[in-house]
Amino acid sequence: MAVIEINHPLIQHKLTILRSVETDTKSFRENLNEIAKLMTYEATKGLKVDEYEVTTPLMKMKGYTLGEKVAIVPILRAGLGMVDGILDLLPTAKVGHIGVYRDEKTLEPVYYYCKLPEDISLRKVIVIDPMLATGGSAVAAINYLREFKVKDIIFMCLVAAPEGLSKLLNKHPEVDIYTAKIDQGLNENGYIYPGLGDCGDRIFGTK
Ligand code: PRP
Ligand code: URA
């Protein structure tokens, strides 16, 4: 179990663009996917590889191929904003979807949709959601994946509140959490502070 905050200059630069209230929908989407791609490079460091023999123009040598099957599971809606960036690096990954939204008053997660690859239990699963606020949505999504016998899960988000990290670590201590930044906390409406606002609305231009 680990919380990994990826402190990379390119990520810090792009995350600042996302935070800015001046950033428009197009630029928000582009930068979110670029960060997701950079984070994937870090988050997949532990992937197993299989060895095989490759012949270069000069000689035979030991080569490597990815030895694990991966599935990406975005939490709808905002998780969708990271999928393309991840698929740039993992083009053969399958993609499942889990729909969970936060009730605006109670902040409790409300489940509404799920479609997963049939062989999900055999895959390493990267659950993605840009925002880990109270942690309710992430915990609900991972609970659901456990019902499908998924064993190997990592969680990847853009911004995490300490409250959400505590909850996720407490409920699923075996899940490694990758985040671009741990922010100060939650405000009275359950928004991450300073955060970047409502991520789904900023990706899809719904407000
Ligand atoms: C946002 C965000 C996370 C959740 C985080 O989704 O994308 O899924 O809130 O909050 P939590 O950690 O307190 O559960 P939202 O409910 O706004 O739905 P949307 O992505 O469909 O807009
Ligand atoms: N969901 C968001 O989109 N932003 C937050 O700050 C918290 C939850």
Task: Provide structural commentary.
With 207 residues, this protein is an alpha/beta fold. The chain has a single domain, classed as 3-Layer(aba) Sandwich (Rossmann fold). The chain is 33% helix and 31% strand. Strands 1, 4, 5, 6, 7, 8, 9, 10 and 11 form a nine-stranded mixed β-sheet that branches. A two-stranded antiparallel ribbon has the order 2-3. A two-stranded antiparallel sheet has the order 12-13. Helix 1 packs antiparallel against helix 2 (25-43) and helix 2 crosses helix 3 (80-89). Uracil (URA) binds at residues 78, 131, 133, 191-192, 195, 198-200.
| Helix run count | 6
Name of the top-level CATH class? Alpha Beta
Gyration radius, in Å: 18 Å
Compute the number of strand runs: 13
- In sequence order, what are the helices and strands, one letter per element? EHHEEEHEEEEEHEHEEEH
Low-confidence stretches: none
CATH topology: Rossmann fold
Beta percentage is: 25-35%
Describe the largest sheet. 9 strands, mixed
- Global mean pLDDT: 97
Assign an overall shape: globular
Q: Which bin fits the share of residues in helices?
A: 25-40%
Number of domains: 1
Ends apart, CA distance between termini = 37 Å
CATH architecture: 3-Layer(aba) Sandwich
Query: Which small-molecule species are bound to the chains here?
Result: 1-O-pyrophosphono-5-O-phosphono-alpha-D-ribofuranose, uracil
Helix/sheet category: alpha/beta
